[in-house]
From TrEMBL:
Membership in a protein family: Belongs to the metallo-dependent hydrolases superfamily. Hydantoinase/dihydropyrimidinase family.
Listed GO CC annotations: cytosol
NCBIfam families found in the cross-reference section: D-hydantoinase
Name of this chain's protein: Phenylhydantoinase
GO molecular function: hydrolase activity, acting on carbon-nitrogen (but not peptide) bonds, in cyclic amides; metal ion binding
Entry-linked PANTHER family: COLLAPSIN RESPONSE MEDIATOR PROTEIN, HYDRANTOINASE/DIHYDROPYRIMIDINASE FAMILY MEMBER
Cofactor(s), names only, from the UniProt record: Zn(2+)
Native species: Streptomyces oceani
Record domain Amidohydrolase-related: where: 55-424
Modified residues (N6-carboxylysine): 155
Amino acid sequence: MSRTVIRGGLVITAADETHADVLIEDGRVVAVAAAGSDYAQGWTATETIDATGKYVIPGGVDAHTHMDFPFGGTFSSDTFETGTRAAAWGGTTTLVDFAVQTRGHALREGLDQWHAKADAQCAIDYGFHMILSDVNEHTLKEMDLLVEEGITSFKLFMAYPGVMYSDDGQILRAMQRTADNGALTMMHAENGIAIDVLVEQALAAGRSDPRYHGEVRKVVLEAEATHRAIQLARVAGAPLYVVHVSADEAVAELAAARDKDLPVFGETCPQYLFLSTDNLAEPDFGGAKYVCSTPLRPREHQEVLWRGLRTNDLQVVSTDHCPFCFVGQKELGRGDFSKIPNGMPGVEHRMDLLHQAVLDGHISRRRWIELAAAAPARMFGLYPKKGTIAPGSDADIVLYDPTAEHTLSVDTHHMNVDYSAYEGKRITGQVETVLSRGETVLRRREFTGRAGHGQYTPRGVCQYL
Ligand SMILES: NC(=O)NCCC(=O)O
Ligand SMILES: [Zn+2]
Ligand SMILES: [Zn+2]
């Protein structure tokens, strides 16, 4: 039997902050007790980790990643091996990635492909959502089977006509199915039909630079789609989780729905909190690095997103990690912004950026842990196995140094992508040591993990319902 004790740190969960010692046996937390108490002093262990001066926090749960994801004729540049390793470096110990149904093919086929991509490759634990690209009678039946296998959330797209887009009828049918099988609908809420008209008009007028990606994907088209998704979910009697919320008016739609006690939830991502249309306007095609959908918005939206995170109108911060190298991938859209693969890297930086937000006064320390670990675990049926430090939980634990200073850069990150979206950003606070089910995968900033340690983790249903 392996026994590890973490002594002397400040244990922070979404509910509590206490100076406590943590006892781990065979990969699970078995006890948390006041630091230095007689009880904790009596613990014997094969390994003792000194956490004096450190935060002891649950490993992050990133509920929105795209490893090896097909988009615009290419694939996102992190594999499950490189992406989960980078996640571990950044203090994330669980991720939920999106398996993709290809049009004309079964969900099962897409899910099998994703298992094959991830199997024996991951440094940390992982689960899957399923992207529905083709809602039909067969797909709807398959959804029930997937729920039984722990795929309890399905993403639908109101954007990307002809690729992953679903029309309102398909969306309603899929939502009705989730009302019966207990799954959660995740929505990419943008009016893709209207956006495609604006794309065509922009290109015809010679507006081809990356910044036009942001201009055609208008705030009102995100807000309209968010509103429509909420109404369709009401008709279906189903819960709804809106992914990558970027716009103030979309937050207002979510807030209005929640004020009516509707089971509607929202996620935002660090790129919308820290970056803006200024980045999309960077010269020499540099804006392409920041092309993602929903798009980056003018700076004023950031304060509304932060407020939403404080008031719980937004519940989760995920990364939507979907990296494409600048050279050879983002460059596919030189001369036509609509051909720039959509997505940005970030899986490594979420915990740090949110800790910086604590220091900058946007959120509290406990809210940091809630947004990055506890809430995504609850939202996607993983709590309390993941997302907290409590007896019975997996020992997915991060020792975080709140005073270490560092600079985010392509030269030091571990993601497989040739630029950093946060190049030069100074951060106070850094992940020092990471345990995944009790195994040390990062020890004092040296990677000690291995591909294949991470296990597929079937999920239960949303725990907010
Ligand atoms: N977000 C993004 O631009 N790319 C990934 C696919 C998606 O989440 O819509
Ligand atoms: Zn999306
Ligand atoms: Zn995404």
